[in-house]
């Protein structure tokens, strides 16, 4: 389907070194009126989402929940096999089955991010949602032992990667017809309060709040909404240490309560399904009894 509008003029063709996107399902033929209806009415049906870090944890849970809610979902992340597994978990493809595209992408690489959003534009002609989720905790070491490369690795993924994806999505949403869309950034309770030995992670998650606020403000003229979900202790690879014992502010080690990633996913789907005239600016979803509220 041809749609008016350019992808911001910066999208480049996928580089030869990039794995080609794979897709299945039959929802690449949306009509502009259908997209308009979905945007204005808030119905998720036929809308197109990009989820970064979709090969594991929260990204996988959110991708599966969006697919179950009728979204067409583009799965992005570095590991092609992990993305393929998310796609497999969505169930069998078919004319009425899920519409999914997988696109191996390193969000720290500008040319790969450009290729991702160019591929989305080419295949679907629209973008309604970016779940800006890819992230890394980095090495948990005392501040004085944090190497420059450790710092850079976390900043590159959590902040620069989030910026690159948000900018590419923003350009697409501004240029498309009908104009607009939604960006949901994955912050953290660490966007508010640090854990011990988490300087790079905490600094980048605080920075994510600035990204969210600026995107919200700069998106106003273009019907681009931006919100942030701040998660505490969803059971994923990243939070494995919380289930075995993790350093507390008082110096003790403690096992912390966790919650299921699907409970996060349900919140993201709710945020995503709102009409663009409404926005959940910030939402905190946390394991009820984790040591956060109450200073421990
Ligand atoms: N779990 C929690 O309780 C919790 C709490 C607060 C915030 N969060 C946030 O939730 C997000 C997801 O974390 P998770 O808990 O689901 O952990 P996870 O399973 O480790 O997920 C991290 C995801 O990020 C992707 N990723 C990392 N570097 C990337 C890169 N350079 N390019 C593209 N993708 C990259 C990984 O995929 P590849 O390795 O395939 O690239 C992976 O799928 C993170 O932003 C994290 O900060 C989680």
TrEMBL record:
<comment type="similarity">
    <text>Belongs to the short-chain dehydrogenases/reductases (SDR) family.</text>
</comment>
<feature type="compositionally biased region" description="Polar residues">
    <location>
        <begin position="24"/>
        <end position="33"/>
    </location>
</feature>
<protein>
    <submittedName>
        <fullName>Oxidoreductase</fullName>
        <ecNumber>1.-.-.-</ecNumber>
    </submittedName>
</protein>
<dbReference type="GO" id="GO:0016491">
    <property type="term" value="F:oxidoreductase activity"/>
</dbReference>
<dbReference type="InterPro" id="IPR002347">
    <property type="entry name" value="SDR_fam"/>
</dbReference>
<keyword id="KW-0560">Oxidoreductase</keyword>
<dbReference type="Pfam" id="PF00106">
    <property type="entry name" value="adh_short"/>
</dbReference>
<dbReference type="InterPro" id="IPR036291">
    <property type="entry name" value="NAD(P)-bd_dom_sf"/>
</dbReference>
<dbReference type="InterPro" id="IPR020904">
    <property type="entry name" value="Sc_DH/Rdtase_CS"/>
</dbReference>
<dbReference type="InterPro" id="IPR057326">
    <property type="entry name" value="KR_dom"/>
</dbReference>
<feature type="domain" description="Ketoreductase">
    <location>
        <begin position="47"/>
        <end position="224"/>
    </location>
</feature>
<feature type="region of interest" description="Disordered">
    <location>
        <begin position="1"/>
        <end position="42"/>
    </location>
</feature>
